[in-house]
Design brief:
The complex is a heterodimer of chains A (115) and B (112). In chain A, 0% of the residues lie in helices and 57% in strands. Chain A is mostly beta strands and 115 residues long. In chain A, strands 2, 4, 5, 6, 9, 10 and 11 form a seven-stranded mixed beta sheet that branches. A four-stranded antiparallel beta sheet of chain A has the order 1-3-8-7, with no helix packed on it. Chain A is globular and about 35 Å long. The model of chain A has no long low-confidence stretch (mean pLDDT 89). Chain B is mainly β and 112 residues long. Chain B has no helices and eleven strands. Chain B is globular. The chains are: A mainly beta (115), B mainly beta (112). At the A-B interface, strand 5, strand 9 and strand 10 of A face strand 5, strand 9 and strand 10 of B.
């Protein structure tokens, strides 16, 4: 089984709808991240979470919210989807604990289309 | 401004060729640099580099870091069509919780 999973994998929705993207991990990592990827713009950070009680905005958080329901689960919500939120969304995890590794492990991505 | 810049942005080679991908960086409190390979899905981790001059190697791929000149290279020898992908270079930015600052990526296409 994959260590980082995302649901749904693909979603088409309409402008104004509320959408939730979910991420689960079995790696036991404390830190979780949501990125979006757009052609020509690379990967950009939306939100990140150090642990269940610590959530921080990234560089493009407007229009998004998150919830860290447990160490293993980090959800991204679009309260009222708009077309320019059409993108590929990735969840990632990392463990900056005693091992001090910087590596982030990515989920398979969710392709979201807002019509 | 912290940034990571990759070159070239795209590259077309033939099977068997050797390629070198470049990544330069300007990152506050730099500690490490990561290389990822992205095909039509999520990025997959290749290497993490923290020390200058120590080559990391995995099969036909190798990478090295130069902390004095602020760059890294990724070499792929005897390229195969399965090496076709976007290669991403990234550096953790510790002023924002270790978020990764990504370069634009190098799109490599290996022709038979």
């Amino acid at each position: 089984d994959a260590d980082v999973t995302q649901t749904p994998r693909n979603r088409i929705t309409k402008t104004g709808k509320r959408i939730m993207l979910e991420c689960s991990q079995t790696k036991g990592h404390d830190r979780m991240y949501w990125y979006r990827q757009d052609p020509g713009l690379g990967l950009r950070l939306i939100y990140y979470s150090f642990d269940v009680k610590d959530i921080n905005k990234g560089e493009i958080s407007d229009g998004y919210s998150v919830s860290r329901q447990a160490q293993a689960k980090f959800s991204l919500s679009l309260e009222s989807a708009i077309p320019n939120q059409t993108a590929l969304y990735f969840c990632a995890t990392s463990d900056l604990g005693a091992g001090r590794t910087d590596t982030q492990y990515f989920g398979p991505g969710t392709r979201l289309t807002v019509l | 401004e912290d940034k990571v810049v990759q070159s070239p942005l795209s590259l077309v080679v033939h099977e068997g060729d050797t390629v070198t991908l470049n990544c330069s960086y300007e990152v506050t409190n730099f500690r490490s640099l990561l290389w990822y390979k992205q095909e039509k899905k999520a990025p997959t981790f290749l290497f993490m580099l923290t020390s200058s001059g120590i080559e990391k190697k995995s099969g036909r791929l190798s990478s090295i870091l130069d902390k004095k000149e602020l760059f890294s290279i990724l070499n792929i020898t005897a390229t195969q069509t399965g090496d076709s992908a976007v290669y991403l270079c990234a550096a953790p930015f510790y002023n924002q919780g270790g978020k990764l600052i990504f370069g634009q990526g190098t799109e490599l296409s290996v022709k038979p």
